[in-house]
User: What shape does this take?
Amino acid sequence: MAITGITDATRAEVARSLTGKRRDIAETLFSLVLLLTLIIALAVLIVLLFNVARTAVPLLAHQGGRVLGNDYSSLPQNAGIRSGLIGSIYLMIFVILLAVPLGIGAAIYMEEYARDTRLARFINTNIRNLAGVPAIVYGILGFAVFAQLLGSVTGPKVAGLSLLTGGLTISLMVLPIVIITTQEALRSVPTSIREGGFGVGATRWEVIRSHVLPNAAPGILTGSVLAMARALGETAPLIMVGAVTGFLSTHGGPLASLRQKFTALPTLIFTYTKKPLPELQDLAAAAILVLILMIFFVNLTAILLRNRYERKW
Amino acid sequence: MAQAVISTPITAEVLRGNPARLRRERRMRALFFSAALLSVLISIAIVLSLLGGTIDFLRKVDLSTLWSDGWLPRNNLFDIKTIVAGTLIVALIAMVVAAPLGLGAALYLSEYATPRARRYLKPIIETLASIPSVVLGYFAIRVISPELVQRLFGSQVPLFNMLAAGIAVGLLVTPLVASVAEDAMHAVPHALREASFGLGARRRSTSIRVVFPAAVSGITAALILGVSRAIGETMIVAIVAGGTGGSLFTLNPLKGGQTMTAAIAALATGSDQVRGTDAAYPSLFFVGLLLFALTLGLNLLSERFVRRVRRRF
Assistant: This one.
């Protein structure tokens, strides 16, 4: 049945709008604007890296031995970043030994043991809120609690502002990150895997150890690595617990260092950035390059782990 | 049908299982529970240490100085409105930068980018989020302030100003906003988009009229989270906002100002520190409590919006 009462002009216009390849300017513009925002966001990274590298690469190439081998100094010809590098590695060890096992333990309780009680919901909300607490507030905690409690261990000269205090503070700060990422990894293991274990009479812990943890390991590892990256870059809590002076004693090995003053790469960057001498500010650039390379390396490890072991159930 | 042969008689003892295994089970459960409980202890420790110091501060301080001309702890001036105004100005500038960049990038990644491009771009955005704030602080004082702010507004603008700090904080929170908002947009069911395309809508109308409203809770959560992070950010403002040694009350972003976080850092690192003599030292806890309450409120609000998304889809 033919449609009647339509003029040829209308017919032509309908045909044109249905078949025509008119460029939609607004549409193109919109997608370009969106693409531009993404490019600006990424360009910041490139400009930043370029700016830092322009200062840092020549410095490291010509005087790398001095920069990486010397400790903090306010004299440009003696100044280096070694103490910060060692301090950051010490802090990493704290995170691995303290935050990672505690975080995994807490996550296992929340996901595998806890029933949906009011207490469990409260702990869960509490963990989520802890993750959003500004880093500097953890610094106040470290300074008000750990530094006071450990004052007797370190003696009056250090006044509790030691590597031990710094390590404890930074571990508490990343603890919620470890818990939340581990919870997600545990949640992604299907219930049927657990039921297989329960079916042959295993206790809950045996099921967790033999069935749940091996399957959740890649996710847990990724989360732990990301927490380490976060701990590497965080500055604010460390300057609260006295890492700003730039000294770190390595006499007598790591255990003796625990009771001494400390520093880390990000706090050293802060200290050098605030110096009026341009040569010392350039050292900040060198420290930034080293720190960013470390963080990118750690992040890359996490991404590769995720891609390599990710399993879809 | 073969009957199961039971060689040992079934007693209550056999059904109860091996007591050593059960003891071990209880021990592991207690261990994990204490790890989970630790997070509650951390929260309690944070609140108690902040409250204790605040009470100490309010007892020592002359209350009229809490509403005066500026935040100058060395002169016993503790004007709350100065640090709150500084914090809000920096956070506002940060969101003016981060909201369009973050949401634009998120919309592009979720609606326009091919799945392949998305797979590469998302990790890059996440890497961007791992750049330490102290690095952006260095970038702010070496590049943003001299090359952008002073070039635009003339060299009479001081090197240390709140605008440069706000822009840098904005760049810092952009990846966070982009990542959370993209998750929300990606979670919008495909059926909604297909219905829109089926009616003849273009990608732009679909993005703005269908995806955006459907994801609005998650997008709001992303923005609130961004504000919360901007308020809690310390190192950038400590380096470039110009609050070292305190600041007079100002609403002009081209001047130096003091934020809550920078005030805490300045008190702790010694530039404003007058230990034990007056109210300057305990004022740190007072500002900390203010900051903690503000970010906690924002985080709880954001959590509520996120939960609304989960309920819908």
